[in-house]
Amino acid sequence: MTVTFSEVTKVYQGKKPAVENLNLEVHTGELLVLIGPSGCGKTTTLRMINRLEEPTHGKIQIDGRDIEKFKEEELRRGIGYTVQQTGLFPHMTVKDNIEVVPRLLKWPKDKRDERVRELLAMVNMDFEEFAHRYPRQLSGGQQQRIGVLRSLAADPPIILMDEPFGALDPISREVLQIELKKLQARLQKTIIFVTHDIDEAIRLGDRIAIFQTGQLVQLGSPQEIVKNPVNEFVASFIKKNYQFETSNLSLKALDLASVDFHPYESHDDRIILSIDGSDDFYLVDSDHRFIGTISKENVKANQITADKVLQPIRVYDSVQNILSIFKDVNTLPVVDDGNKLVGVITSLSLMNAVARLVGGNES
Ligand SMILES: Nc1ncnc2c1ncn2[C@@H]1O[C@H](COP(=O)(O)OP(=O)(O)O)[C@@H](O)[C@H]1O
Ligand SMILES: [Mg+2]
């Protein structure tokens, strides 16, 4: 579903506009990141979508329909909402917390149970182990996952996320970013995600909207924004913030790489390898030097040339580097100093590795 802002202004009494003349269309299935310094109007923008705030001027539409035409509860049930401090109810179990909206929608018990199981499985949390715990019996990262799952519970087409990972340590945040990317690849929701962390914006966003004192100053893909900042403000915002946190991740690419290759075919001096957990085939020369990947279709059609040349990862690259490149791909080839293919990192192996690193902090 699309969300469209047309000339939207919000003025809180006696103040300068919190949001000023905002024109913005969020596309179906995209993850749009709103970013900017504190007080620039991100939260206000988000809260106007589910009518926790009313615009002073202008209109907001969902799939072309003015949101004022919806009943408030109807509107909010179609929109998932996650905030930084999770908003979990402390006296309710994990399961009860996740089920809040399905209960309001009067889903039968069987359907709710099944949904909670399915949601916990999506973030690798075991139902038996976690469903009956209370929020205080979870780590910060686990609580935040439950907050995210709650916003997904009734399968709303639109999700609003207001700095959902802001309070987490850097490693847990990275894990949840990966999980969210995977969920989004699968669910294709329209997600509007607020952050003030440019790394997070670049990792997650299909597009990024940069705000400065209530105004949208630049809208574009992460690449566009990093390459062509429209003004000094955007440029310095990126520069100041665009550096990966130095968390003490010590795992290297090779530690994460799956090395389970199966020779599939060889053609003259080229060898096609397949690998568990990946749909693509990998093309190497007779010395095992990496050439590129080939799709299944091309292999079947006997088209033995690389159709995608992914930038390979070096065996000594850090997890931070890998996370920063791991976008829009499911797997990344890992090569040694001689450009020989030594393994492949899948999103699953990356997620598991990061989860292992977090181990000590969990539960
Ligand atoms: N309920 C409110 N009443 C008065 N002013 C508010 C209220 N909420 C936010 N503001 C003001 O509106 C501006 C934008 O706030 P906000 O949308 O929360 O920014 P951000 O989420 O980007 O930090 C700030 O100047 C803030 O002080
Ligand atoms: Mg805010």
At a glance:
The chain is an alpha/beta fold and 363 residues long. It has helices at 42-49, 72-77, 94-98, 100-104, 109-122, 127-130, 140-152, 170-187, 198-204, 222-227, 232-241, 253-256, 296-300, 319-325, 347-358; strands at residues 3-10, 19-26, 31-35, 57-62, 65-66, 79-83, 158-162, 190-195, 207-212, 215-220, 261-267, 270-275, 281-285, 290-294, 313-314, 331-335, 341-346.
CATH class of the largest domain: Alpha Beta
CATH structural architecture of the largest domain: 3-Layer(aba) Sandwich
The whole-number mean of residue pLDDT values reads 84
- Euclidean distance between termini CA atoms: 37 Å
Radius of gyration: 22 Å
Q: What oligomeric state is this?
A: single chain
Give the uncertain stretches in residue-range form: 243-249, 359-363
The total count of helices amounts to: 15
Give the CA-based shape.
Answer: globular
- The helicity comes to 25-40%
Number of strands: 17
Please indicate the percent range of residues in DSSP E strands (runs of 2 or more): 25-35%
Count of spatially separate domains: 2
What molecules are bound to this protein? adenosine-5'-diphosphate, magnesium ion
Strand order within the widest beta sheet: 6-7-8-3-9-10
